[in-house]
UniProtKB/TrEMBL annotation:
The keyword Glycosyltransferase applies. GO terms for molecular function: quercetin 3-O-glucosyltransferase activity; quercetin 7-O-glucosyltransferase activity. Its EC number is 2.4.1.-. Gene3D superfamilies: Glycogen Phosphorylase B. CDD domains: GT1_Gtf-like. This is Glycosyltransferase. It comes from Panicum virgatum (Blackwell switchgrass). It is an enzyme of class 2 (transferase). Belongs to the UDP-glycosyltransferase family. Residues 11-50 form the Glycosyltransferase N-terminal domain.
């Protein structure tokens, strides 16, 4: 009986079409497939085209996985970068949501598609797309929200309305960013204004930041979803998870998923991995290399690039630096040449994209200069690599505070981009025995969480049972949309 129910459980997963979200959803899907469930992975048309053969090969390798897509409403030549997030969110809320509604209406019925997949019994949608769970529930399909960020950042977003009530937000004009913040549960002893999402800094009595507003509204609406799922673990985020559990219908802490259900990185990589960087790392001494990557959305100015470069060169270690093609705008080509020339023959490897997990676990990597996107943060934690944090936006400001002041597996360089500081912080991260010891201990702790009877592994099993139970509950009747 249990087996039959398992075979009929079919989850449609629907991430935001951004790299950090795609990776996280793919690892989750891999876990579901291993548990015996069917998975429909919903991309945008643009991304599915961009992934091309890699996605087709991943689906061909598993008969219970398929990739479908909906339009994102943006013109084909739109760069879909960090400057276009509001347009992308609007396209998802309007164009994508209409196509998703039609698709889900057909997939929830037996025989809705010709490929033999059972009807969709549950939706797991990105936690910043509340429309996705509203539509699913309207169609009688239960929906879970999956936030691909840290529990501490979700709690901070959830607290924003209270921060406004308390008068903590907006910040006073010209106020001290190091002042403590009251009103985010349990974090009052270490959270400062500068550790809230950077968008909080631009708020005024009359100006509301659209991105902050969208994320806060989605977080508040998560209370309506059947459950909130997070790619984190109890031992890293126990207190934040306990507070969230009081606010949500149920909370599952099932991560770090990339270490529990590794999926082929190429299946969701929007850029092509550089093949030469691993061979370059092979030629470097143990723990001698600084690895720099600021994720898939950060952009930097040429001035910031120059400060990083001089700081790195002065620190004196060889470095592997990911400079995405869209990271520096027009000065990208010149920057590449400058970096290689400044470092000296063979002392640097500068590439557009790397297989990050392989890089972080390479014996030559001594520290990770990161923007603290949540995936990069937990990937660094799992490999026990000391971090230097330079957060860019959204959840990254609070993640980096946790690295520097709570977990202490790295150093927070937030808001400073000066060569002397880069040099000093990189040196400290490479040379501090204490940071290295703490990073190692944290990695071991997380390893216990993801082992068979560890907290995250048990939470994943509980989540799968929850999804299976939802799939045995008869779907509600589809609402009658015929004209009155
Ligand atoms: O050369 C590279 C660089 C990165 N990565 C991978 O790309 C992902 C990047 O994700 P993340 O570190 O989370 O950064 P962003 O791409 O910036 O992610 C967005 O999504 C995250 C999850 O929601 C948020 O935490 C971030 O703030 C948000 O910017 C990670 O899995 C990396 O391993 C590679 O494979 N190769």
């Amino acid at each position: 009986m249990a087996e039959a129910a398992a075979d009929m459980a079919h989850v449609l997963v629907f991430p935001i079409p951004a790299q950090g979200h795609l990776n996280s959803f793919l690892h989750f899907s891999t876990g579901l497939l291993r548990a015996g469930l069917h998975v429909t992975f919903l991309h945008t048309d643009h991304n599915l085209r961009r992934l091309g053969a890699a996605a087709r090969e991943a689906a061909a390798a598993s008969p219970r996985l398929r990739f479908l897509s909906v339009p994102d409403g943006l013109p084909d030549d739109d760069p879909r970068g960090v400057g276009n997030i509001p347009q992308l969110m609007e396209g998802l809320r309007t164009t994508a949501s209409a196509a998703y509604r039609d698709l889900l209406a057909s997939l929830r019925r037996a025989g809705g598609t010709a490929d033999g997949f059972p009807p969709v019994t549950c939706v797991v949608a990105d936690g910043i797309m509340p429309f996705a769970w509203d539509i699913a529930e309207e169609l009688g399909v239960p929906a879970i929200a999956y936030r691909t960020v840290s529990a501490c950042s979700v709690l901070a977003y959830l607290s924003v309305p209270r921060l406004v009530e308390l008068g903590e937000l907006p910040f006073p004009e010209g106020g001290d960013l190091d002042a403590p913040i009251r009103g985010v549960p349990w974090m009052e002893s270490f959270l400062r204004r500068r550790d809230l999402p950077v968008q909080c800094r631009t708020l005024t009595d009359t100006y509301q930041d659209p991105l902050l507003e969208t994320v806060v509204a989605a977080t508040v609406q998560t209370r309506k979803a059947r459950a909130l799922m997070l790619n984190t673990t109890a031992s890293l985020e126990r207190a934040s998870l306990a507070h969230l559990a009081r606010e949500m219908r149920d909370v599952f802490a099932v991560g770090p998923l990339h270490a529990m259900s590794p999926a082929p990185a190429v299946a969701t990589s929007l850029w092509r991995h550089d093949d030469g960087c691993m061979a370059w790392l092979d030629g470097q001494a143990e723990r001698s290399v600084v690895y720099i990557s600021l994720g898939s959305l950060t952009v930097i100015s040429h001035g910031q690039f120059t400060e990083f470069l001089h700081g790195l060169v002065a620190a004196g270690y060889p470095f592997l630096w990911v400079l995405r093609p869209d990271m520096l705008g027009a000065s990208q080509g010149a920057a590449l040449q400058e970096a290689v020339a400044a470092a000296g023959e063979g002392r640097s490897c500068v590439v557009p994209w790397v297989p990050q997990r392989d890089v972080l676990r390479h014996r030559a990597v001594g520290c990770f200069l990161t923007h603290c996107g949540w995936n990069s943060t937990i990937e660094g934690v799992v490999e026990g690599v000391p971090m230097v944090c330079w957060p860019f936006f959204v959840d990254q400001q609070i993640n980096s505070r946790f690295v520097g002041a709570v977990w202490r597996n790295g150093l927070d360089m937030k808001d400073v981009c000066e060569r002397a500081v880069v040099e000093g912080t990189v040196r400290a991260a490479m040379e501090s025995a204490e940071v290295r010891r703490t990073a190692r201990a944290l990695a071991e702790q997380v390893e216990r969480d993801i082992a068979d009877d560890g907290s995250s592994a048990l939470e994943f099993k509980r989540l799968v049972s929850f999804i299976r139970e939802l799939s045995t509950t008869p779907a509600a009747a589809e609402p009658d949309r015929s004209p009155e």
